[in-house]
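TA notes, week 10

Several of you asked for a full example with nothing omitted. So below is the full record: structure tokens for the whole chain, then the designed sequence directly under it. When grading your own attempts, check the secondary structure regions first.
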């Protein structure tokens, strides 16, 4: 099975600390690198993670608070310095488009590659990117300004060839793709070998949902139902639920309620308030509701 991993570059909230960087993640899926949010310092974290700059093809910004996008122009500028030529695709709220274009025009010269901006309607659940192997959907969230999360899904995979059967029936390698796509094999004497004997079932497609800054949404579980891994912001504990309501954030317990109601495989917590010196208090609150919960920390890597 090909890797489907989440690399945590930053998991803190707006106030910078010496313990946590602000929000950014890289998702490694089907030989692609996709970035979710790009806070200040992200390009340094990207180097620490040993992810290859050249493989990063798409950046998805959830909203226009600085702790989710201040690192974008710096990273783009660095990509120009290291000789990037491939187009970088940036997705985010419509208002990001003219801001990003103005920054590129002012701060960079002879960039050497194209930056293509794709506006996202943060009020709609829709497919915003799709290729042969994955699709990315927007997840409407509710924060203090237009915000959406993103859901990354693998498409249905092809079945696995059974090499022992290929050898037994002396089927040439040139037929592998045909058989993966459902073809039977006809022997020289006319006997038909059914496809079901030549392949093993495909691995089930995997999915990852990234729900950044949002107040608790009781209906959110419907959009992330059954995903393998859910990241949900958990800025506060129950001791600060009034702050969560005031600033349109969620508590760790509320994040766990979404995970439980959605029937996800595992829950990742992040976007911690700087007031917590030990995030285990958030972990314990979430585990009371949804046991398979994990804290995120910089340079952690999670299998989806």
């Amino acid at each position: 099975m090909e890797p489907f991993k989440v690399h945590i570059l930053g998991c803190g909230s707006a106030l910078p600390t010496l313990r946590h960087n602000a929000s950014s993640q890289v998702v490694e899926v089907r030989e692609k690198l996709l970035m979710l949010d790009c806070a200040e310092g992200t390009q340094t974290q990207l180097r620490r993670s040993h992810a290859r700059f050249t493989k990063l093809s798409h950046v998805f910004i959830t909203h226009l608070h600085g702790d989710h996008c201040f690192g974008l122009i710096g990273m783009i500028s660095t990509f120009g310095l290291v000789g990037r030529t491939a187009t970088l695709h940036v997705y985010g709220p419509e208002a990001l488009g003219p801001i990003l274009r103005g920054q590129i025009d002012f701060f960079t010269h002879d960039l050497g590659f194209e930056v293509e901006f794709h506006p996202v309607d943060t009020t709609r659940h829709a497919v915003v990117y799709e290729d042969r192997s994955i699709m990315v959907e927007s997840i409407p969230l509710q924060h203090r300004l237009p915000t959406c999360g993103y859901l990354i899904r693998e498409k249905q995979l092809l079945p696995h060839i059974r090499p022992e059967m290929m050898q037994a029936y002396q089927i040439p390698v040139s037929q592998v793709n045909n058989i993966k796509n459902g073809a039977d094999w006809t022997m020289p004497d006319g006997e038909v070998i059914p496809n079901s004997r030549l392949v093993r079932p495909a691995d089930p497609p995997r999915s990852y949902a990234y729900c950044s800054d949002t107040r608790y949404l009781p209906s959110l579980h419907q959009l992330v139902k059954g995903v393998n891994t859910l990241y949900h912001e958990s800025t506060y504990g129950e001791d600060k639920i009034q702050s969560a309501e005031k600033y349109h954030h969620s508590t760790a317990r509320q994040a766990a309620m979404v995970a439980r109601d959605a029937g996800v495989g595992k829950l990742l917590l992040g976007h911690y308030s700087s007031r917590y010196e030990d995030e285990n208090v958030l972990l314990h609150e979430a585990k009371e509701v949804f046991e398979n919960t994990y804290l995120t920390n910089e340079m952690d890597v999670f299998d989806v």
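The CA atoms of residues 7 and 301 lie 5 Å apart. Use that as a sanity check on your answer.
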